[in-house]
Amino acid sequence: EARLTTQSWTNVLEGDSMDQDVESPVAIHQPKLPKQARDDLPRHISRDRTKRKIQRYVRKDGKCNVHHGNVRETYRYLTDIFTTLVDLKWRFNLLIFVMVYTVTWLFFGMIWWLIAYIRGDMDHIEDPSWTPCVTNLNGFVSAFLFSIETETTIGYGYRVITDKCPEGIILLLIQSVLGSIVNAFMVGCMFVKISQPKKRAETLVFSTHAVISMRDGKLCLMFRVGDLRNSHIVEASIRAKLIKSKQTSEGEFIPLNQTDINVGYYTGDDRLFLVSPLIISHEINQQSPFWEISKAQLPKEELEIVVILEGMVEATGMTCQARSSYITSEILWGYRFTPVLTLEDGFYEVDYNSFHETYETSTPSLSAKELAELASRAELPLSWSVSSKLNQHAELETEEEEKNLEEQTERNGDVANLENESKV
């Protein structure tokens, strides 16, 4: 069956190659992919599918779509055990929290029981003249309970260590110190886990689309950000990155190359006072990576815009970061955002129902470079379209014709006056 299957696939491939006009055969070598990439490959790939789906680098919810595979130096995670525990999921974190305390209680309970067993306290439980190491310790369960009371400093008063047991005193000191260290480590880990500002980023929202339109006579790329909470983000700042593979002049291929997108770094517009939703604008100029991209070329580009909003949470003072991304299908050419801020009686109101809404506006389909060249030739502002330029030329021509007619009528009137004067 395997031979028949191989032969059938060979016949199919030969038949397809005969139907196509191919100048020379091309040998396709399958690259060696990591395990996760091989698992993600589809089992059946349609030959009719010509449009490849763009794989996100950062998802819309801000999570990075990157998996670290074949990491052999796993011991590095243990060198930073505190961060490793904080990064674990809650179910594993709680399991480790319970297991650490249970193991320490059992460990020291076993030692207390061994001390009592070696000293012979178990054989003199009913002897009132015998001084045990720990009073009322008559088995492993009671030793375990005494270990819990010692480490948690509960102290019910029923089981007490005596001064006739030096080894017990030393063990009491060791358990008290180690118990304090365990408490500080685990409670600190849980506190950091609870106070992480990741959930604060859930109330920082980005618009579902980015838009490209004219603003102040210049072609701009824009997106909107907002904060749903009344407690504000202190010292908020915004950054944007263009994720796009490129090839250098030397032939080196750089996958997922990161390029900065200027959103007001030099003018201070990247530092936000995020009380109401703001529209972040990127001017498409000669330093912009979108300088040569037109409306027709934009859907053909394989790029992703990653936006990063950072700031300190006002309530806790911890740094918070929210992320989102836009691929080419989420960039709307010739659109603007619908206003969401209205003036009410004594206050401003934000309508978040219109936060993601856009409306179409008149925008040239040329790239910023072509618009600059066209404007430099005609010496006109960038915001004027070709039709407006033609209309202005027509208006100038009509104005010149009207002036010529007025001058001609004035000359004719002057000539008639001179003739009348000559006749008189």
TrEMBL record:
<feature type="transmembrane region" description="Helical">
    <location>
        <begin position="94"/>
        <end position="118"/>
    </location>
</feature>
<dbReference type="InterPro" id="IPR016449">
    <property type="entry name" value="K_chnl_inward-rec_Kir"/>
</dbReference>
<dbReference type="Pfam" id="PF01007">
    <property type="entry name" value="IRK"/>
</dbReference>
<keyword id="KW-0406">Ion transport</keyword>
<dbReference type="InterPro" id="IPR041647">
    <property type="entry name" value="IRK_C"/>
</dbReference>
<keyword id="KW-0633">Potassium transport</keyword>
<keyword id="KW-0630">Potassium</keyword>
<dbReference type="InterPro" id="IPR003275">
    <property type="entry name" value="K_chnl_inward-rec_Kir3.2"/>
</dbReference>
<feature type="domain" description="Inward rectifier potassium channel C-terminal">
    <location>
        <begin position="204"/>
        <end position="373"/>
    </location>
</feature>
<feature type="transmembrane region" description="Helical">
    <location>
        <begin position="168"/>
        <end position="192"/>
    </location>
</feature>
<dbReference type="GO" id="GO:1990573">
    <property type="term" value="P:potassium ion import across plasma membrane"/>
</dbReference>
<feature type="site" description="Role in the control of polyamine-mediated channel gating and in the blocking by intracellular magnesium">
    <location>
        <position position="183"/>
    </location>
</feature>
<keyword id="KW-1133">Transmembrane helix</keyword>
<dbReference type="GO" id="GO:0005886">
    <property type="term" value="C:plasma membrane"/>
</dbReference>
<comment type="similarity">
    <text>Belongs to the inward rectifier-type potassium channel (TC 1.A.2.1) family. KCNJ6 subfamily.</text>
</comment>
<keyword id="KW-0472">Membrane</keyword>
<protein>
    <recommendedName>
        <fullName>G protein-activated inward rectifier potassium channel 2</fullName>
    </recommendedName>
</protein>
<dbReference type="Pfam" id="PF17655">
    <property type="entry name" value="IRK_C"/>
</dbReference>
<keyword id="KW-0812">Transmembrane</keyword>
<keyword id="KW-0407">Ion channel</keyword>
<dbReference type="GO" id="GO:0034765">
    <property type="term" value="P:regulation of monoatomic ion transmembrane transport"/>
</dbReference>
<dbReference type="GO" id="GO:0015467">
    <property type="term" value="F:G-protein activated inward rectifier potassium channel activity"/>
</dbReference>
<dbReference type="InterPro" id="IPR014756">
    <property type="entry name" value="Ig_E-set"/>
</dbReference>
<feature type="domain" description="Potassium channel inwardly rectifying transmembrane">
    <location>
        <begin position="58"/>
        <end position="197"/>
    </location>
</feature>
<feature type="region of interest" description="Disordered">
    <location>
        <begin position="391"/>
        <end position="424"/>
    </location>
</feature>
<keyword id="KW-0851">Voltage-gated channel</keyword>
<dbReference type="InterPro" id="IPR013518">
    <property type="entry name" value="K_chnl_inward-rec_Kir_cyto"/>
</dbReference>
<keyword id="KW-0597">Phosphoprotein</keyword>
<keyword id="KW-0813">Transport</keyword>
<dbReference type="InterPro" id="IPR040445">
    <property type="entry name" value="Kir_TM"/>
</dbReference>
<dbReference type="GO" id="GO:0034702">
    <property type="term" value="C:monoatomic ion channel complex"/>
</dbReference>
